[in-house]
Amino acid sequence: MSPTSSSDPRPGSGSHPGTGTDSETAPVDQRAELAAAQQWVARLIDGIDQQQLDNPTPCTEFTVRQLLEHLLAVQNRIAVVAETGSIEGSPTSLPLPEDGATVAAAFRAAAARTQRAWSGDDALTASYQLPWGTVPGFAAVAGYVAENVAHGWDLAVATGQPAEADPALAELALRSYQGMLPDEVRLLPEVPFGPRVEPAADAGPTERLANFLGRSSR
Predict the structure, then answer these.
(1) What pLDDT, on the 0 to 100 scale, is given for residue 100?
(2) Rg of the Cα atoms in the chain
(3) Distance of CA 27 to the CA centre of its chain
(4) pLDDT tens for each residue of 165-191
(5) Residues 122-131, mean pLDDT to the nearest whole number
(6) CB atoms closer than 10 angstroms to residue 191
(7) What mean pLDDT do residues 72-99 have?
(8) Crossing angle of helices 31-46/103-117, nearest 10°?
(9) Residue 59, pLDDT score
(10) Would you state the pLDDT for residue 99?
(11) How far is Cα 9 from Cα 212, in angstroms, rounded to an integer?
(12) Where are the domains of the chain?
């Protein structure tokens, strides 16, 4: 996997993935932020032309088509982990719809499923088995907020659309990754991120998030 490819969250030592917090920090409910991130990605998908599906993306192993397939799978995994407690066996990509439905409609349907799956009162404090270990629900949700924002930037850049998410949402995602990706963690062979890129002086928070994850943006 290339250093600038996936945004699959991996934890820093002592941190909950996606939160940058230790186990003594009170749970933070980011379910509304997850919905906002998904809505932003859905609007970006609305703006994609069929002729752009083979465009490269900042995720160097993904074309636009492959990134869309991955994003559909990410939403599926978000729901599956809430429904079953684990994402074991859940695919990392799903084929784009061939039944006449639009990709955006399929994405929105998958996102709606995630909202239903995470709506329970105890969803944020229950434990879930993810690739990086067992984490509380609030940490899993925070990680998926950050992943959607990061891949939204990838998609926007690849298709020539405005690439800045809501600043508060992007800052939240950036803080999440800053907490779980200290420089020493980046050196681990299983961590799919390259060295951070120095952001431009006028970079917005979503671009700075991409730079922090090792993506070049200028």
Answers:
(1) 67
(2) 16
(3) 19
(4) 999 999 999 999 998 888 888 878 877
(5) 94
(6) 17
(7) 95
(8) 170
(9) 87
(10) 73
(11) 13
(12) 32-159
pLDDT tens digits for 3-48? 334 445 544 433 444 444 444 457 899 999 999 999 999 999 999 9
Measure Cα distances from 212 to 111, 195, 207, 216 in Å. 26, 8, 9, 9
What phi and psi, each to the nearest 5 degrees, are found at residue 34? -60, -45
Structure tokens at 110: 């998958």
**DSSP code string of the chain:** --TTS-----PPTT--TTT---TTSPP---HHHHHHHHHHHHHHHHT--GGGTT-B-SSTT-BHHHHHHHHHHHHHHHHHHHHHSB-TT--S--PPP-SS--HHHHHHHHHHHHHHHT-STTTTTSEEEETTEEEEHHHHHHHHHHHHHHHHHHHHHHTT------HHHHHHHHHHHHHH--HHHHTSTT----PPPPPPTT--HHHHHHHHTT----
Extract the tokens encoding 34: 């997850």
Which CATH superfamily hosts domain 32-159?
Answer: dinb family like domain (1.20.120.450)
Mean pLDDT of the chain: 88
Hey, what are 199's tokens? 């952001």
